[in-house]
TrEMBL record:
<dbReference type="InterPro" id="IPR036291">
    <property type="entry name" value="NAD(P)-bd_dom_sf"/>
</dbReference>
<dbReference type="InterPro" id="IPR020904">
    <property type="entry name" value="Sc_DH/Rdtase_CS"/>
</dbReference>
<keyword id="KW-0560">Oxidoreductase</keyword>
<dbReference type="GO" id="GO:0004316">
    <property type="term" value="F:3-oxoacyl-[acyl-carrier-protein] reductase (NADPH) activity"/>
</dbReference>
<protein>
    <submittedName>
        <fullName>3-oxoacyl-[acyl-carrier-protein] reductase FabG</fullName>
        <ecNumber>1.1.1.100</ecNumber>
    </submittedName>
</protein>
<comment type="similarity">
    <text>Belongs to the short-chain dehydrogenases/reductases (SDR) family.</text>
</comment>
<dbReference type="InterPro" id="IPR002347">
    <property type="entry name" value="SDR_fam"/>
</dbReference>
<dbReference type="Pfam" id="PF00106">
    <property type="entry name" value="adh_short"/>
</dbReference>
Amino acid sequence: MQIEGCVALVTGAGSGLGAATARALAQQGARVAVLDRSLTDATQVASEIAGLAIAADVTDAGAVEAGFAQVKAAWGTPRIVVSCAGIGTAQRILPRDGALTIDSFARTLQVNLIGTYTVMNIAARDMAQTDVLDGDGARGVIVNTASVAFEDGQIGQAAYAASKGGVAAMTLPAAREFARIGVRVMTIAPGLFETAMSAGLPDDLRAEITRNVPFPSRMGLPEEYARLVVQIAQNPMLNGSVIRLDGAARMPPK
């Protein structure tokens, strides 16, 4: 797919992986809608790339629909949709105090899994109503974000791993279903990246984490995630797969 001239929408684009992705797509010539729960953050990133700032929480289907409608009215239907919105949770299933953690589990799935599904559902519906872009019959591409935790989640990551596992698991069935409308679906599963989610980690924990990354032995950069999104958009044979972006790291149990 040729990115230049396409309309793109990135969720969670006010910071971190989403912001880097919005910038990278804009550099390739796309018109980018920056969707984030924080209008302030979305506006900041949008101002850098002549984008469109949209305030919406991905757990609110009505707000997400309104956001897509806003983009369509301004520029047309997004043909590249990237879901980066998500939350990180660290909580044992059975804490030492014996407290129930069901509400925390449900909230994590609501944001990370159902939020991703909501965006994908709305994006695919809108793309299905557009004209094809090339001889293959392509109408668009959807890129979702999982995590290496979906395969090697640590102690305290049951909710997070389950939510990201769901994102990974729906990649292939979604790609197979959307083949009839010419929409590809891919998922990126990053390791630990330099984002707001990781910024508060203690130095000793950061050092321990990077020791488990064979090469390069460091945290990933948001720009490296964004580069993969660009490559997925450009390569029509990338479809229905989950790509680990982790420097060959495997997370230890804790």
